[in-house]
Amino acid sequence: MRTVLRLFFCLCASWAGAAGAAPAAALGAITGAVRTSDGLPLPGVAVVLEGPASQRRVTTGPDGWYRAAALPAGAYSLRVDAPGLALRGTATVTVGASEARHDLVLSPAPVAERVVVSATRGEATLSTLGTSATVLEREAIDDRAAASLLPLLQDVAGVATARSGQTGQQGSVFIRGGESRYARVMIDGVPVNQPGGAYDFGTALPFELERIEIVRGAASSLYGTDALAGVVSLQTRRAAAGDAPTLRAEGEGGSFDWQRWLGATSGARGAFDWNLGAQRSTTDNEAPNSRFEQTAAALSVGLKLDGRTNARAVARFDDSSVGTPGPTAFGPPDRDASFAREDLVLSASVRRDHGRFSQQASVGYSSTDQLSQNPADSGCYVPEWHGQQGAVPICDFPNPRGFQNQTDRLAAGYQADVSLGTRQLLTAGAELEHETGALGNRSEDLLRPERTSFGAYLQDRLLLGTRAYLTLGARVERNGSYGTHVVPRLALAVRVREGEDATTLRTSAGMGIKEPSFFESYGESFYAQGNPDLDPERSTTFDVGVEQRLFASRLRASLTYFHHDYRDQIAYSVVDFSTFQGTYVNLAHTRAQGLEIALEARPVPELALVGQYTLLDGEILESPSDFDPVYAVGQPLLRRPKHQGSLGAELSFRRWSAGATLALVGERADSDFVGLGLMTNPGYARLDARLRVRLLGPLEAYVIGDNLLGEVYQEALGYPALGRAVRGGLRLRLGGGGRP
User: DSSP string of 484-539?
Assistant: First the structure.
């Protein structure tokens, strides 16, 4: 159609010239790509042109390209409205009668703008989204040097964590007061939650990760089930175009017989890029029978099939085992109980860009096989804490064959992105998920349920006026358990001040849904019958905030108020107290609201500072529990602190770097669950520090201290956290460039 119109215009102009009329002024166009300095496309970003036609604003399409047409001849200056990203090189283009090409490359400012994918299912600069999100990139992950993934997530505003023990033992993540099963967890775009939303972060290590994205607020309009409170997305490390082949090796040892060995290679040759890594980690921890062992591998390969088509395949695998001594703060450890786990994630995708239109097809598979064993009877004990004794003894219940929890999820999807004009980016997609499982006591017949769900979503991103970015979206979800539901979402970001000291106001609102677990829907136990008529658990969330950049983007500060309402929560309920027969019902209702403050500063190039604070006011509004005061109406939410924050600093020079992180966690509601009557868990402070020194060429030495204050605390009542620990190691990098 555009070609036909151009031909018609040319014919009219020729006819007018032949008739002796005055020739029309020549009109031209400017087109080009907008990308970050590492080649990442930036869709939905405003490009501002100033010249003979005064000012013109256009937005980039799904592949990061822009086009401004019908421009009078003359010189135009170009700039990009993206705080935290500075234009590299000159941006002056002379327009004639033809189309001029000018690509724009944006380099990070001292406090860089983040490009986030999970908030919109496509690359977008965070300042153009009203959604609250945090991005941890490879450098930040490496600098933090955490022994597990949980401390990295705990450093994010709005996120609380709790581990029932030490390294490798059960770990939970709570976003904005939601339950630990209220976040959609994805690895390379593949959902890895167990059916019903549960995901155990206990064995998750920061192994070969390129980036971590945490989106806060209901995101079911894009991701369907599980995304009531937010999304946690992990992406496997990958090589960029032009990266020279590199070999990496690391060896690390330390307190509690900690050992870690890693070997990896990455690089790019022509149209092909790869990253392959393998790691072995072991530790005895501190408590008896708590040894943790893990073997992990990760592979990411990409191929450019032609100038517009890219394919990628990713695989991750880990095999771990850990002893589970139980709540050793209250009594003797169980010396034979253990937990073994195997996780596998596979994904493949093909993306093709057609100028203002792109499409992607993907398929993913995730599997987790968990086995809890307790072969011998450890006897009974009376719980005790600081001279206080429980009312009844706690006895062991051996299970020689163990309890199995094996689930699989196969997912396939298609997504299309199209630019409609210069101010609108439309996204549409569909997904199919099939879940299966084999669960229960292995001495009995296992429960073998399956469930298929289908979802279709639509999202529209619009530039309103010159400084307002609106995102609207909705999803229709057809779930194998609860039927069909529609969930909407909207977000708005308004740039009230442009430039290096930009001010952005943002707000978002959405609804979330979560499917029941397999046991909740299909359970066959007499004491816990599944309920096929359960409704989905739901959430309604909104937030409003402001982000301010100061001192030429050397400081970024944000303040956000949030309110999350979680209703129709599924809870166990006894239906016959004479037999204690029970089932699951939609009865519970909770509310969480509060403030998030985040600071990021780089006063000089060598020094980076980060800080965050979360105020959470959470409350149980409705509860089916008439006998447990922990879950009574009016009580605060379990294991979610009212006050939490962290401060971090990183000092980097050519041959050495040093950093420290102080985590502060306030008092929180909890329960001993053994009859002692404890209902609060005291706060704690944990100081972690690290030092790296480049020795000779590609060889680097480092030392890391965890809990250097020697704080004695329990993330979950009854389960002591690790004491003071020191780790040290060597890192070798051959080939490539940059820091080892």
Answer: EEEEEEEEEEEEEE-STT-EEEEEEEEEEEEPPPHHHHH-EETTEE--TTPPPEEE
